[in-house]
């Protein structure tokens, strides 16, 4: 799951710097590497500084994705020293698609699930996310639009709607050549939480994954989602923390 999807959206480029994968052209830069970077000390500091300076020259923020079992063990300390700031830690969970597909949560009256591909629906999803997080998530619409256009077989986007309003949205990402697919999204408007919508979207995506021959589902889960997924049978395997460097204001 550390690699890049084989078909980048238009305007997105994959680059390599030593052991690192660097993704350029998204709403912010992204950096990931193997479990063992194979570099330490001053060499690691130089590698980190190069990523920061690369995106600083572009005037962009960059996320370096870390996992709890990565080495060298002082990677996160060196990221902090270079100005990277940790965001919230997430739990990496894995479950069997076939087991998740048989669960049938009952949706609240008036709520329906629908798979979407239209640009307008992606913008409605971004508006919902902006409301949930009280922040500008307009970038998400362009991200989803680009991914669907570049590789429609690699992503399936779903919305839960009530009265014409998107109340929750989630997507499933396939990774060719592996037995895994990933669950993303799942944010729900506050007044609709705790009513089975998130669980229904997990089951819906699991059914599609199982039908496509996927064995395992993978989730980087927030503290809100992880307990729900554990109750469904997902197992924790590690944690992941994004470290983000942001250009100075002004």
Helix content: 25-40%
The largest β sheet comes out as: 12 strands, mixed
Task: Please report the distance between the alpha carbons of the first and last residues.
Answer: 36 Å
Our estimate of the beta-strand percent is 25-35%
Q: What is the β-strand count?
A: 12
Q: How much is the radius of gyration in Å?
A: 19 Å
What ranges have pLDDT less than 50 throughout 5 or more consecutive residues?
Answer: none
In round numbers, the mean pLDDT is 95
Spatial shape: globular
Structural class based on helices, strands and sheet pairing: alpha+beta
Number of helices in the DSSP assignment: 7
Elements, N to C (H/E): EEEHEHEEHEHHEEEHEHE
What does this structure look like?
- The protein contains 7 helices and 12 strands.
- The radius of gyration is 19 Å and the shape is globular.
- A hairpin with a 2-residue loop joins strand 8 (about 155-160) and strand 9.
- The chain has helices at about 40-60, 75-80, 95-100, 120-135, 140-150, 195-210, 225-230; strands at about 15, 20-25, 30, 60-65, 85, 90-95, 110-115, 155-160, 165-175, 180-190, 215-220, 235-245.
